[in-house]
Amino acid sequence: MAVNPQYYGAYQQGLLDEGVDPSDGLYGTAATGLLFAPGAGLTDVAGYAPDPSRPGEYLPSFTENIGEGQYLDAGLQLLGGAGDVMMAGGTVFPPLAGAGMLMKTPRAARVASYTDPVSGAKITPEDIALRPEPLPILGSEAFPVESLLGAEMRPFLADRMDAGRFYSGFAESPLETDVPLQGGDKYPLMASSLEDELAFASLGEGTATNIAGGTGPRRFAVITQMGEEAHRSNKTIGGRVIPMQVRAFIRDGIIGPDQSDALTALIRSKSTKKRSGPKDLETGESKTFERLASFPGYNSPDIFSYMDGLDFETRGEIAKILGSAEAQKLNAPDVARILRETISPEAAGMSQMQGGILVELDDLPTAALKGTSGSHISYDFATKGRPVARIPQGADAEVFFENLFSKLRAEGRPESNFPYLLGRYMPKETIGEGILGRLPTPADADLPLYSRRQARLLVDTLRGNWRTTDVPVNQRGLGPTEVSQAIESNEMSASLTPYSAQEIKKGAKDGSLTFYGLGSPSVFGGKQTGDTGGKIYFGLKRGTDYNKEYGFSHPDLTDNEVAVVGLINNEVGGSAKGVAGPSAILKGIEEGATVLDAYAVPSAKNPRGFLPTYYSEFGFEELGRVPFEEKYVRDPEFGGSEDKYQKLLAQWRASGWDEAMGMPELTIMKWRGEDGIRTGATQRFITEGGANFGGQNQGIVSGARSQLGEPASADAGVSQGGRVEGDPAGDTGSLRDGNRTNFSSGFQRAFGAIPSLSPGGQRSLGLLDQDIAEIRSLLGM
User: CA 326, CA 322: separation in Å to the nearest integer?
Assistant: First the structure.
């Protein structure tokens, strides 16, 4: 499914309303056009200009932009309303004076297009809009699997950058101009690509010609995924988004002048660092990142042309430097968060070398992109072709290129080198019957199972694979530093208690605070995994006294409660769809949780806030609410800051809240379940449903078997970000239709769907027969 940009945020978090068609591509174009209509400036000032990226909603009014600190947009509104597009607007509204050249551009133009600072190429929403109808499923009537028989197949290796939307940067510190995302594996699905039959973008004409593989009848390519962080090195992310986000931090005072200078010095100091690539031919020494010595600084007018002149590895190195502890102390933006927010949701859940999009290639091999509607920030040429089918859950490259992988194993090549060798050899193999039998089926596409990453998280949840800070890292425990960094990196960090690594370490030692991380080194897909598992975390804080901490008392509360705190979902894209919230809350119940607190963020669809209703499904009952106290977030005396306060408001606004609804209250909730159901609470909730926990939904064994083949739909799960002791999700809007009463039902359906997978679907999700047998046994099926 091609997700249109206006629905991206909801889709990424697994929270799409069922009544919304995520592939609808018409609204954004029409709304953008209205911004140029006569009288649109005054309409915009009043707050009635349609938002091209959110159907049915309006762009913020002048007053709202002032309240949000968006002085640039507010100033542009004044200029548009007055018909004055000159810098004279600075005399009306002083913050305009420092906005520079951006003030010369009407707000509508900023929303409607992007002009590249180096090439001058203009890219519009119409150019990058994704095709309005989804691609046919491979094996469906629209594209029978037999269509591939006898055809030649080759791999196209793509980074994981999303396509079809503009990226605005962090909500609390937006970019100076929105940047178009152009893929990634969804590149051939954009309007400009479809119009000109462009299948895959490349740096040079020779590269584009080479990967096209010559001419001949019936040639196809499967677009396969590179590593998770591959898209940080291209010009779009590494050369535009990351520098713009740093500049936004400087503009907003998050990075001060001294810190900016120190950041420049830090990057230059790494010029002697050895590269991992080939050695210098003359000296035989490992090459260094010598170009970093001339890094111009982020305030330089030459920053974007400098970034364009770097190779992929050097741009990637700068991203690594910004993510280092040294740079983070200088308030550099979190690059990991940028990558999470710009990754394709579909690609995020795939393993390296998995592919989900099939393209058919043309005999005319290449096309130049410069000066065309298909102009690309990162690439200048494209291979000709068109997208023809989608593979449910993706397929491993080895399914299509078995001969190459057999050869590599026979040569004793380490599997860690296979991704590199796949790109080096660019194999082409003829599709036979054996290959077709190893692919997923159209029926797999109807199951609420979306990716290998999601399957891994589900299996870890069911097996109880959690790391804890009570166990040393060298014994496969969870490191305090990993948790503290996860809190800082989370999109909702302003609403999280900022536990430091030292506090977490001390809590683990005296037993007052334990953090859990989903996933531990375990057997998955028949192999012993060595990774550290997922990026879903939560903590249990023992000895919690709400009267002491918040001045809140209730007959059912003691001074020694066990509180769920710091629920964090840092999984990328839609990988944790429907998993994060239930897995953490149920594990917390198993480990003795008795209370939790969460901001009830009101919205038009959920005037009393979403989270209290969500947590009630697991047996937590609302005892009362504590009014929001600004000082605890804003006042340095209480560990707050103006930056943290503004960031919190920006995060809430992104959830559908505004000040007219009143400040969100802190809801105190008590678990009402019986202690006897704590043991095995996760399996009990999955198989028996929420009746024993206070909910109404049935489990997969006690009544939902008939839903095993039900099409995937919009279920909940805590959205990205989270505190529980604060705001784990913000407000998510309506997550149910008229026939659904429970938000967590998708959690059960996902488990119940696993035994329904075809052999090809099992393979795509990394599940072997013994895994399926174990899952059926654990679920009592």
Answer: 8
